[in-house]
């Protein structure tokens, strides 16, 4: 027979130990299978490889400017996260990497991201962007839209990827996490 008066204190000790290091729902630890290496161009037409941002953690989101709802919401979360970071926001490089190079030119990215000058848009050739997605294990696929003026959409994952200062991806956050929580988790890793 197990005595319950011993189980109650043990439960609380175990619960306290687990919650200290347990990441919040929506945070995913990444391993060495993920790589943030890329060789693209930014929304000003300048070369933008991962080496350009060395020494600064990157907060990366893969999306596209014609996205009707998911990407705008995610960009809102990214901006709110940067706002929550306050002064520390300058220590992180936020990047929006397109999954739709056919439409997302440098000019279009500039117009789309003009609401927040902290976010830098990146584009490139189909092959260059596919290589960047493959290295980060990001799914994206063009989907034809019959009887639509836009012609197609792009199904894609919607995650924020955080790298360390050397450019190694360390964690991903679901796009529906509270910006204050994301900011706190980023600050803990800076």
TrEMBL record:
Keyword Ubl conjugation part of the UniProt annotation: no
DNA repair found in the keyword field: no
Gene3D superfamilies tied to this protein: Glutaredoxin
Family matches, as InterPro entries: SCO1/SenC, Thioredoxin-like_sf, Thioredoxin_domain
SUPFAM superfamilies: Thioredoxin-like (SSF52833)
Thioredoxin domain segment(s): 29-190
Keywords assigned: Copper
Family per record: Belongs to the SCO1/2 family.
Xref: PANTHER family: ELECTRON TRANSPORT PROTIN SCO1/SENC FAMILY MEMBER, LINALOOL DEHYDRATASE_ISOMERASE DOMAIN-CONTAINING PROTEIN
Record's protein name: SCO family protein
Source species: Parvularcula lutaonensis
Lineage of origin: Bacteria, Pseudomonadati, Pseudomonadota, Alphaproteobacteria, Parvularculales
């Amino acid at each position: 027979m197990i005595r319950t008066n011993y189980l109650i204190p043990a439960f609380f000790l175990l619960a306290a130990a687990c919650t200290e290091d347990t990441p919040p729902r929506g945070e995913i630890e990444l391993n060495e299978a993920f790589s943030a290496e890329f060789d693209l161009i930014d929304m000003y037409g300048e070369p933008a490889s991962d080496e350009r941002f060395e020494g600064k953690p990157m907060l990366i989101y893969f999306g596209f400017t014609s996205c009707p709802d998911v990407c705008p919401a995610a960009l809102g979360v990214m901006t709110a996260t940067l706002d929550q970071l306050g002064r520390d926001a300058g220590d992180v490089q936020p990047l929006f990497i397109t999954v739709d190079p056919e439409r997302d030119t440098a000019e279009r990215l500039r117009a789309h991201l003009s609401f927040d000058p902290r976010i830098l848009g990146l584009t490139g050739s189909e092959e260059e962007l596919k290589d960047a997605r493959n290295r980060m294990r990001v799914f994206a696929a063009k989907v034809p839209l019959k009887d639509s003026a836009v012609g197609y959409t792009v199904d894609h994952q919607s995650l924020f990827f955080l790298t360390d200062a050397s450019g190694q991806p360390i964690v991903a956050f679901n796009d529906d996490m509270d910006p204050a929580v994301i900011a706190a988790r980023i600050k803990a890793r800076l």
